[in-house]
Design a protein that fits this description.
The complex is a heterodimer. Chain A is mainly beta. Chain A is 13% helix and 50% strand. A nine-stranded mixed beta sheet of chain A has the order 3-6-8-10-12-14-16-18-20, with helices on one face. Chain A has a nine-stranded mixed beta sheet with strand order 4-5-7-9-11-13-15-17-19, covered by helices on one side. A two-stranded antiparallel ribbon of chain A has the order 1-2. Chain B starts with a strand and ends in a 7-residue tail after the last helix. Classes of the chains: A mainly beta, B alpha/beta.
Chain lengths: 344, 249
């Protein structure tokens, strides 16, 4: 079946074919993939038949429906404490089309950090995960996701959530390996000073494809969002990034920024970006910027003048881009894990 | 007998895009271990000469030849020239976000030697060399030249010179924009290079401060893309006293 996902909130010219994506021949999702974890003290785990958090998601209703049809249990992790220990969820996807559903709830004044490590046992396969979150007043949820899948793997990663006043969501995503990746996040910044901080890094090669849709939905006064995307495209790889900062009437004092930095390693890559700032409120500040291209000639000469070959320079810069985002992960053990993956 | 290291014959070069000739036939010979000084008024082509020798793709060589260590390098790529042992200390070192100074130097050495460096051996050597240059060791873990002051950038260039140990180094106005203390430190670094590596130097400069502790073998005056006069170390004082007027047409 074909499934439309990642639709932007306000459509632009149709002929650009960037408004949404139709994923062809999507397999029906059957059963849960294996996930191993141990729940740190202060976090309560529950299993439910359905999601209890009502929110939009980045990839949209069609993806939600697909996951719902898989009838997998929703694993909910909740806390009312400031939990220092990281909740690490190790996913091992097998070759079948699997689904996982997760809810993360952080009560008022609480803090929780979740690390999702996506790996596959097989080179090929399909996997989907939907994560919904709810962040209470003055609470902070950090979600770190690292994707390192087989070279023929297709992966759907859908996120959505809601923030209470002063509730902050930090999302760090590293897409390091896998054939076709579909990513989306929706953040409902409906409360005063609610905040979204997103840092994404990706590394694509061969005929890899990455499709992204990130929606910061501002209605809360002085709400904040900052979306940073940094990536490297090699060979014939393709990427489409949609980033929407949606300022609705009433979100006075809101500030939103999105920045993209893409290193194009080969001329045959395809890089598409659609940064959108929708504005229905006067007292807001929204910015977007992009740095896309090959390395500056002056920089290249400087580095070559130390005896480093062009290919080695590109490799070094590519790694540096991913590391720059990975280095923002607060936990040293996760940073080290990423470093080891980059060395592979 | 002198051991010829660099021989430039009738070198002409232009800016690649503009086709405007900047070097109009430069002849220059530098032997192993010698220290040569290139002086000249602003816009004479001194930096262009340094960059062209290093294979800067922004300049197109339109005539003449460059021989280094007995090999014609006129058409050789920058990384290969560097690997043979040539080094350029940049007048305006480039900022490279994402690559730390330490990582950059380590990668450069490994590329040059083709061997992986043991981390702790490298770290020790880097730390000792930074001490010679009065460099705060925290700079090693900072992104290359990003947010460095002018003085720190120049020290980082000399640090690379000492770590990479080239047989021939071009120092392009390494002393410009530095205060007295920074010039002294950089000069110490250059002395250390002469002492430990014994390589040849081509120093492009406007001032004499950086030359005080060095034994200069030859001085060349570059005017309008051509070397118009050659002399010994005493030439430097003469030029400082009387300027370049007598060399200008």
């Amino acid at each position: 079946m074909d499934v439309k996902v990642n639709q932007i909130p306000a459509l632009t010219w149709n002929w650009l074919r960037m408004n949404e994506l139709t994923v062809k021949e999507v397999k029906a999702l059957q059963g849960e993939s294996s996930v191993s974890y141990s729940t740190p003290a202060g976090i309560v785990e529950k299993s439910n038949q359905d999601f209890t958090i009502d929110t939009k998601t980045g990839m949209g209703e069609n993806m939600e429906k697909l996951l719902k049809e898989s009838a997998v249990l929703v694993h909910s992790f909740e806390t009312s404490d400031k939990v220092q220990e990281v909740l690490k969820l190790d996913y091992k996807f097998d070759g079948n089309a699997t689904a996982n559903a997760v809810e993360l709830k952080v009560a008022d004044n609480a803090e929780m950090t979740v690390f999702m490590d996506f790996r596959s046992e097989e080179e090929a396969g399909d996997a989907a995960i939907e994560t919904r979150y709810e962040i209470g007043e003055n609470a902070h949820l950090t979600l770190i996701q690292v994707q390192y899948l087989g070279d023929k793997f297709r992966f759907y990663n859908n996120i959505g959530g809601e923030h209470a006043e002063n509730g902050k969501f930090t999302l760090i995503q590293l897409v390091l390996k896998g054939d076709q990746s579909y990513y989306g996040n929706y953040s409902g910044l409906h409360a005063k000073k609610s905040e979204l901080e997103t840092k994404i890094a990706y590394m694509l090669k061969d005929e890899n494809f990455l499709d992204m849709n990130y929606d910061a939905d501002h209605t809360g006064k002085k709400s904040l969002c900052d979306i940073q995307v940094s990536g490297v495209l090699r060979n014939q790889s393709r990427k489409l990034f949609r980033g929407t900062i949606d300022f609705h009437r009433g979100c006075a004092g809101a500030v939103g920024a999105e920045m993209e930095d893409v290193l194009l390693m080969d001329e045959s890559v395809r890089n598409q970006t659609i940064p959108i700032i929708l504005c229905d409120e006067e007292d807001v500040s929204g910015t977007h910027g992009a740095s896309i291209g090959r390395l500056d000639e002056g920089m290249m000469f400087y580095m070559q003048s130390r005896g480093i070959k062009e290919e080695a320079i590109y490799e070094m810069m590519a790694k540096a881009k991913i590391e720059a985002i990975a280095n923002q992960i607060p936990q040293e053990e996760i940073r080290e894990e990423v470093r080891q993956l980059l060395e592979k | 007998m002198s051991d010829k290291l660099l021989e430039v014959k009738g070198l002409t070069a232009c800016v690649d895009e503009e086709e405007k000739e900047i070097l109009h036939g430069v002849d220059l010979t530098i032997n192993a271990g010698e220290t040569h000084v290139i002086m000249g008024p602003n816009g004479a082509g001194k930096s262009t000469l340094g960059s062209t020798l290093m294979g800067d793709p922004r300049y197109k060589i339109t005539g003449g030849s460059i021989e280094f260590q007995g090999e014609d390098i006129t058409k050789l790529s920058t990384d290969k020239i560097a690997k043979m042992g040539m080094f350029l200390s940049f007048q305006n070192p480039i900022e490279v976000p994402g690559i730390t100074l330490a990582n950059f130097i380590k990668t450069a050495i490994e590329n040059k030697t083709g061997e992986r460096l043991r981390f702790w051996d490298f770290k020790k050597q880097l730390s000792e060399t930074m001490k010679i240059l009065n460099m705060d060791e925290s700079y090693a873990d900072r992104d290359l030249n990003v947010g460095f002051s002018g003085g720190e950038k120049k020290k980082a260039e000399i640090l690379q010179l000492l770590m990479l140990k080239p047989s021939f180094a071009i120092l392009d106005e390494t002393d410009s924009g530095l205060d007295v203390d920074a010039v002294r430190t950089v000069s110490q670094g250059i002395e250390e290079y002469k002492k430990t590596v014994g390589g040849a130097l081509m120093i492009i400069t406007h001032s004499t401060r950086i030359l005080e502790a060095l034994d200069v073998d030859a001085t060349h005056v570059l005017v309008d893309g051509k070397i118009v006069a050659n002399g010994d170390a005493s030439y430097i004082d003469e030029i400082n006293e009387n300027g370049f007027e007598k060399f200008l047409k």
